[in-house]
Write the structure tokens for this entry.
Amino acid sequence: MTKNNLIKLHIDSYTGQGSTTKSGKNTLPTQPQASYETLCDAISEFDDNFDILMNNLIKDVNNNPGKYKTGNFYGSPTCGSGVTIFPNLKLGHGYTGHIAALWSNPNGTMAATVSKKFRLNGNKKQYTIVGIEPPYGGKPGFGIFTDGFFKEYACSTGLGEDEFIFHSSSSGLLSAQGENVRWMIDKGLCAGYKLGCFYYFNKFTSSLMFPSGNHTKKELKQLENDMWNVTI
């Protein structure tokens, strides 16, 4: 599970290859469940289906270029982040497609990823699976985030899940001490656990943010020490 979860899209280059249904969408290799016995079961399904769902999402961009013209963007680049977000695309079974324009170059670059909301058997709590790509201290992979995490993120930053996915999920420094994990992103500090092959985050605070710019190994070490000294 070390795939690039935020995939840059080039609308004119996609050929739509692959086995499809009559509706033109690729069938999923693993049948989605209404709920799951364990978090690992949900992650396993998400990992199995991720590439096909991304193909379906890219097809929607390529087959409907009018939906993704500048005039159909909503909002302005978020907090100077250079990210403009399109309305989400519901893919069924709790899966959501997220599409945005990243304005890191003069012409803008389309980017997309997939998330999934789910519940465990007999549990009313909702979780969200999101791909994360911390540039320092961790490899690209999948993270499970609680609703409480996103509520704290929204209250502290005024931003939503889409902004987290396209702006914060590929930022910062991740550090693990045993099963405990801290992840300092551009908007604050995430706390949780490393559970097997994925991360689980249930706490957030804006009291410590990852600074912009390039950082030396000494600076990164100091930042790592700082985030473990914060009480969340």
In short: The longest strand covers residues 109-118. Residues 39-63 form the longest helix (25 residues). Confidence is low (pLDDT under 50) at residues 10-24, 71-80. The chain has four helices and eleven strands.
